[in-house]
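Researcher: Next sequence.
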Amino acid sequence: MKKLIGLILCGMMVLAGCSTASTASTTSSSTSDGTMTITVLDVGKADAILFATSEGYVLMDTGLDEDKDDLVKQLQDMGVTKLAALIITHFDKDHVGGADAIVENFSIDQIYTTYITSSNEDVLDFQAALTAKGLKMTRVYDTTMTLGGATFAINGATDDYSEKPDNNSSLITMVTFGTKKYLFMGDAMDERIEQYMANHDVDADFLKVPYHGYYQNDLETLFKAVTPTAAAITNSKKNPGSSELKQTESLLKEVGASVYEAASGNITVTCTTSGFTVTQ
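Model: Next structure:
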């Protein structure tokens, strides 16, 4: 049965090349003055990140199923009615849990995903919502989209990881806006981090720390290569534990990064073509 479900889901996915998102929402909270706003939403130990540009919105991940109604309301309160793109970095419940509600409540131009590693209930709900709307997922290998002056370079994972394939299947996205770069690592773990670093320039000004800030062997190497001036961790008040989180944050501070935890509230990054500010 699982093989059948997997075949059905995989059949929904098409291969990704390069795309330009030129049609998008221009509702009130989209920026119109040459800026981009990134909001790392406080959704517990889960990811939901909204990019607002002058031409519309991109949502990266959708938190947990139990919080999806709150996520929809937050987005609506921010003025979102349409997404130029929905990016699902991988199919763990804390990233895809609210995807069905997002599909049901918002118009979406493009849906970018990694490959399906497990057919859990959240994935099946997402699939049903897509079918109802006549939408399809696009599996990403290397895709570039532009929106409102921002370039999203989305890198897809291979499917041969020896450990933690769910997390290591994460899409990794480098966003460039003006002279600054913003790197979003999903839940990438050591094997995926090493693969990405071997093939990409990871130098960036802002980093969304991989895997909610859990300590990993390759974090020190990653942070020294990225050298961010600011970093966001999508943790909850209990996970990761304080001692493990402290290890990760110490490594970030060693490279000069200011560290922000989503457990303390939404993190807002206001980007101009020459810099950015972070508020919480």
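Model: The longest strand covers residues 82-88. The chain is about 30% helix and 25% strand.
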